[in-house]
């Protein structure tokens, strides 16, 4: 007999010492028994860990290696060339930039959830981050075909998916390589929503009307090597949880950097595993599920001695969707504990808490 979501959350064991691997081979299999088995694995990982690897995710190694090569080219450009594009972004593309800011940037320090998770003896030892050691290029939805992209109605009127991207002229091929991966990862993300719904005992289409124009923001990240004496106040990406529903993360093969915090306050390595991507849940899922699904704190430190690249894709819900606990995640013993806010207000609040404006 399957136990209820609330019971499963009550029995959760989040002292994990490794991140589970889920084989998505069954995703294309229409046999309901196969789908249910897959959803059960997803449910277990979401309730206990909040992170899992996926293999057989359908994105080719060629697409990924092209993305990596193009990132190397882009990030090796002179700083002035790179910041030129960033200025362009802030001046002309306020919408895209603001959306990116709202959804992904303002969360690395003083995170309320981190403090909650880290209360106990380790809290006092938490270093104050002096700054994150990484640079990033952020972009949102865009048709791969450049002529279609120019006339894409999604980019003209739509507040969430749209906002024109500014591509660096000095790195030809970057746009195409990154967008090719983007579209593969967006397709994977869309295929994940029904699995998450089934994992929550909901109808597979439950999230369809809540994710019609949701932002899917991708970030190409570059972490310089951190050499010299380790200073925990300056790390690649400081401890944080992601804001959105879930993140699909590609990590450069062969370089350990990502770490995930377990309930024992231990940092567990999440090394890149060949042929896999990482999926982790964000705060929107924690709100929706009354913390039955975990939005787990993580960080990245590049102590490898060489450059490191990674690519997260953040999937959110539409900004007007109220983040209201779903009934199967509430009980008399587990009342809804988050105030109901819209997804848009939630990210704005996080921004305010971090920057004070
Ligand atoms: O680079 C990584 O491995 C993690 C990136 C991350 O956590 C983020 O951008 O939210
Ligand atoms: Fe993250």
Automatic annotation (TrEMBL):
One GO MF term on file is:
metal ion binding
Task: Read off the Pfam families from this record.
Answer: 2OG-FeII_Oxy, DIOX_N
The protein's matches in PROSITE patterns, at most eight in alphabetical order, are given as: FE2OG_OXY (PS51471)
The Fe2OG dioxygenase domain sits at: 214-317
Keyword Metal-binding listed? The answer is yes
Keyword entries, A-Z: Iron, Metal-binding, Oxidoreductase
- SUPFAM superfamilies xref list: Clavaminate synthase-like
Q: Which Gene3D superfamilies has this protein been placed in?
A: B-lactam Antibiotic, Isopenicillin N Synthase, Chain
Q: Which InterPro entries does this entry report, sorted A to Z?
A: DIOX_N, IPNS-like_FE2OG_OXY, IPNS-like_sf, Oxoglu/Fe-dep_dioxygenase_dom
The record's comment on protein family reads:
Belongs to the iron/ascorbate-dependent oxidoreductase family.
Q: What is this protein called?
A: Fe2OG dioxygenase domain-containing protein
